[in-house]
Amino acid sequence: MLKISIITVCYNAEKTIERTIQSVINQKDTKTEYLIIDGASQDKTLDIIQAYQSDIALVVSEPDRGLYHAMNKGIAKASGDYVYFLNADDYLVNEFVMQSVTDFLIKYSQIDVVYGNLQVRYPQREPSLHRPPPPEQILDELICGALPHQATFARRSVLEAMGGFDEQYKIAADYDWFLRLTQQPNVKIGYMPITVASYAIDGQSAQMTKVLPEVYRIQNQFPPYQTPEWQQRRILAYQKQITELRQRESQWSETLAQLTTGGSEEVEVQTLIAKLQAAQATIAAMKTSKFWTLRQKWFQVKKRLGWPGDMES
């Protein structure tokens, strides 16, 4: 029977790790190997893990060099046909997910890497469902978006052949891995219409400030994105994104002003503030991209030529 290695990497995750573990060990009718790679937590994380020790194939707790070093350690210790990473603050959406994924992988045995849907949880609003695009649209998606590693299953041999995750990146090595994956001619990538996990997104503005500069650095070193065709596609995608963000920023600012003067519920106000801050942080982070430099030059040319149109903002 096909075997899947589930790897949870954690550090000081006492508030969330138990739900993650329970979502794995309660899976029905499937063959899985569960590994937990802990970075020598200082809180009660290990106490919680030890309570479920009999259902966990391997627990490693030792200092590491960061998230992706820990994930690479997990790959090295896994023995499954496929490897899946489940974060310590996320969980599988129901007890039959792994059975559904296993059935899919058996049916489509030619697929080496497959990704599904992801439920996204927000601190102060209802969750949403993220449905990633089909494989032929991955490079377009990765210009301004990302694929859900929390819903991705990769053949272990593929992870090993690609050298795992590049540890020079501290927060976006999974993004780099997906880009490199698209350049593997013998690797078959697929999409499965299965919602795999529930993913917690917290502190969006802080995340954008940290992750986007590294994402842009990766993009600017990725050879396919440097061709004239992809340069143009990236510029158009970024211009569309920033226009939409500016529009949302204006709408949300106006709505926020109305809410704060109208005595609205605090949760509603805080939700809008979080969305506004995330949009502003995204725009600020975009200024580190190659796109922004090209955009600045384009506005300068338009100004010199006296062309009408949107002015730089």
From TrEMBL:
Q: Which ranges form a coiled coil?
A: none
Gene source species: Pseudocalidococcus azoricus BACA0444
Provide the alphabetized UniProt keywords.
Glycosyltransferase, Transferase
The EC number(s) given in the record are: 2.4.-.-
Glycosyltransferase 2-like domain ranges (all copies): 5-121
Q: What is this protein called?
A: Glycosyltransferase family 2 protein
What Gene3D superfamilies does the database record attribute to this sequence? Answer: Spore Coat Polysaccharide Biosynthesis Protein SpsA, Chain A
Matching entries from InterPro entries are given as: Glyco_trans_2-like (IPR001173), Nucleotide-diphossugar_trans (IPR029044)
Instruction: Recall the GO molecular function terms of this protein's record.
Output: glycosyltransferase activity
Give the EC class as a word: transferase
